Amino acid sequence: MIGRTLATYFASRFVRAILIVFGFSCAIIWLFDFLELFRRTADAKAFSAGGIALISLFRVPSIAEQVLPFATLFGAIAAFLGLSRNLELVVARAAGISVWQFIAPALVVAVTLGAIGTTLWNPIAAGLKDRAEEQLYELTGRDKRLNPIASTSDVWLRQDGPNGESVIRARQSLDQGARLGDVTVMSFDRQGRFRARIDAREAVFADGAWVLSQALVRSED
Question: Does the global pTM surpass 0.85?
Answer without folding.
Answer: no
